[in-house]
Amino acid sequence: MYTNDLLWIANTESGDHINILPKMANRHGLVAGATGTGKTVTLKVLAESFSEAGVPVFIADVKGDVSGMMCPGQDSENMQKRIQRFGLAEANFTYKGYPVTIWDLFGKSGIPLRTTVSEVGPLLMSRILELNDLQSDLLTIMFKIADDNNLLLIDTKDLKAMLKFMGENSDELSNEYGKISGASLDVITRSVVALEMNGGDVFFGEPNLDVSDWFTTSDDGRGMIHILDSSSLINNGKLYSTFLLWMMAELFETLPEVGDLEKPKMIFFFDEAHLLFSDTSKALLEKIEQVVKLIRSKGVGIYFCTQNPADIPNGVLSQLGNKIQHALRAFTPAEQKNIKAAADSFRANPDFDSRTVLTELGTGEALVSFLDEKGTPNIVQKGFVLPPQCSMGAATDEERNACVKKNALYDKYAQAVDNISAYETLKDAAEAQAQATAQAEAEAAAQNTTSKPAAKPGSGKPKKPSSGSSSGSGKKPAKPKVPKAARAAGRSAAGTVGREIGKEIFGKAFGKKAAKVGGNAGAAFARGLLDTFLKR
Which range, 136-145, 191-200, 443-452, 483-492, is most confident? Predict the structure, then answer.
């Protein structure tokens, strides 16, 4: 609840409020605990409080029950006991739903959420495709070639077209960009096909997400709660986690520096946070840590939700100032070690032993420590998390569909648009080349026929031309040369290789501006090639 300009999250055993200071909410946070300890309810209470404070929220819905935030809670005997225990009646506690926008990367259970290949960039795309270092380097070269030649990378068709283009012109391209391995190109292509089979052909496309659409409030001033339906997406952990990383990078790049505000501009909750860091390269992990450290100055708070704090790398964990730690289990020596580490991360309370309490906490109970006005962690307290005012369970299919269809953003993103990009540009170029080659061969054949000497009467069968000759000159007509691949389309002054260093997050510099160029690139590219062939 949001009362007295404070985010009221829990109570102590004595009934004192445990609050998050809004101006410290952008210092990030952690919600951790074993399965069944109440993490999802805690996320709902946090999201409700931020929404009431007028702060937009993003939250990933892995199990499907977060969608119930659009519906008011149901009264029960147990809820009445909790209302009385927390003194919620005096705080005007009421059952109510919250303003919700539901998104879905696959467009089945929410508003379609898309981005382009160029926006994701080579580093994160390599992670999605699960490429090794050599293959990742080759993918980066592909982005560079596309950027140099103003070839727009929007969807997976563009990826496959560029890979094919590189394979067919590998000898020439290698002179400028280094050795291009056909075997590695084949591996990347198979990975792209596998991505398409898992829904990647739907996720990558246009219209792509404009993150400014998330910084909205409802008519009554409450922050919009953006829910990403991840019930199907979670089956593809790499795509799920990479999308979340892309969002962080997009926000970091888009938002201006604002310093510490009275309240955050937006709060992100990343459920199943361990997937963000699973099999993460050192380079990518360094980028994640950099973004987490710096994005708070842009008014964004990130709250990681996972089963064990050990799932979060130390460089990131050290940046999480607001902590809610639900119960942990200690059945193995490794788990006991994790409990000690979790307990030691809190500022000690002389009234109890944190390590012992962590294994004894019930559902809805947690060790809680938030930042004070100076940004210093408060002494850890045993807290009892408030009940949510929204529904505990999931919304029905009818409620979900109605919420999606009536949203103003549905009309903006519902229909996919297939604009001219690398696939169409290269296809037109190949057709123009084939047409020019066929025309040249036809002209050569006609010239051969007209220049062939007529046989003298009575001389018998004409003498067979010598080997390798097809005309009176004794030489084959030369085929028109294929124009250099690297110069197939004019270099663009708006290319993104020189983007500012501060914006080169996750390798997104390549193709960034190219993805915003109009659809004339394809026509110009094809015309240029055709002119070249006809002049020959």
Answer: 136-145
Give tens-digit pLDDT for 60-81. Answer: 988 888 999 999 999 999 999 9
Could you give the C-alpha distances from 473 to 444, 465, 469, in angstroms and in order? 13, 10, 7
CB 263 within 8 A of CB 217: no
Cα-atom radius of gyration of the chain, to the nearest Å? 30
**Closest of 72, 66, 16 to residue 42, by C-alpha:** 66
DSSP letters along 349-409, please? -TTS-HHHHHTT--TTEEEEE-B-TTSPBPPPEEEEEPPPSB-SSPPPHHHHHHHHHTSHH
Which residues are bridge partners to 530 per DSSP?
A: none
Report whether pLDDT(487) > 70. no
What pTM did the predictor assign?
0.81
For residue 231, count CB atoms less than 10 angstroms from its CB and return exposed for 0-12, middle for 13-18, buried for 19 or more: middle
Check: CB of residue 54 under 8 Å from CB of residue 223. yes
pLDDT, residue 388, reads 95
Contacts of 519 (CB under 8 A, 6+ apart): 419, 420
Give the fold, CATH level 3, of 2-114+209-409: Rossmann fold (3.40.50)
Cα gap 70→76, rounded to integer Å: 19
Nearest to 325 by CA among 3, 10, 48: 10
Rounded-to-10 torsion of CA 81, 389, 103, 215: -140
